[in-house]
Amino acid sequence: MSLDELSSGRWGIRQMSRRLGLSFSFLLSAALAVSAQDKIGETVYLDGEVSLTRNGNQLDASAVVTGIPIDNFDLMETGDDGTAQVRITAPQIAQSTITVSQDTQFTFELSRLEGRENASINLISGSLSLKVSKLGGTQAMDVQTESVALGIRGTDFAVTTSDAGDVLVTCTTGDVACRTQDGTEYHAVPGTVVENQGGRSFRTISVAVSDVESYRKTWTAQRAAAVKANAPRLIRRSPERRDTL
Fold first, then answer.
1. Are strands 75-78 and 83-88 parallel, antiparallel or unpaired?
2. What are phi and psi of 127, to 5 degrees?
3. Residue 18 reports pLDDT greater than 60
């Protein structure tokens, strides 16, 4: 695998399967999962390379068009020039819009647990922006990354990751609760971002709302450069990722 391939974030679907296996097993054993065939939304915009994997099979490229339904557990992946927008329309949860950046992989997951409807977006790599309507009392929605879970309650925000495990959460409206693996909680709110990079602890940083987008672009470019520069070390420290190459 070349350094350019490594820095692009295209680790492959096998890594995703391992990272999400525990989550899927828990849902199947502890919750009444919504059928994998249930429609949870649809694409409202597609451009460039965008693929969709359903039930372990990648759909033919000719079928991935604007308006295609999104089913539970679908995996969406964008390429170097790919962008997409997905509208969540499942009646069980609040309507939401997901804007997908280039080089991004994520899955959808809708389940029922103890009388609550839970929508979860599992971000494997890349960057997503979300606009979420206010959820009802029996509804919950979150975004999961490798290192943090984001609790959502009606907000506009973005989450970006890198292949090194870095995370940046920005919010322009509302409040996103970021809970780390050790249970510590940070809040991304207008004027404050949450980040973790270079193996350091999570932290909050003051960033004006007007500067959020430029900050996110600069952060993404810097982390991609860091991944490329440290690719050999990252591969040595991550046998699991090396197995996927």
1. unpaired
2. -145, 135
3. no
Helix, strand or coil for residue 202?
coil
- The answer to whether 159 touches 169, Cβ cutoff 8 Å, is yes
The three-class DSSP label of residue 216 is helix
| From 30-44, 53-67, 110-124, 151-165, the region with the lowest mean pLDDT | 30-44
The DSSP secondary structure of 117-170, one letter per residue, reads EEEEEEEEESEEEEEEPPP-TTEEEEEE-SSEEEEESS-EEEEEE-TT--EEEE
**8 Å CB contact between 103 and 11:** no
Distance CA 7, CA 221 (A): 10
Q: Which H or E run includes 137?
A: none
pTM: 0.78
CB atoms within 10 A of CB 138: 13
CA dihedral (88, 76, 156, 147) in degrees, to 10, reads 120
DSSP secondary-structure letter at 219? H
Which range, 67-81, 115-129, 135-149, has the best average confidence (pLDDT)?
67-81
Alpha-carbon distance of 96 to 88, in angstroms, equals 5
Helical (H) or strand (E) element with 185: strand 185-188
CATH 3.20.20.70, applies to 3-243 = no
Q: What angle do CA 209, 212, 213 make, to 5 degrees?
A: 130
The full set of domain ranges for the chain reads: 3-243
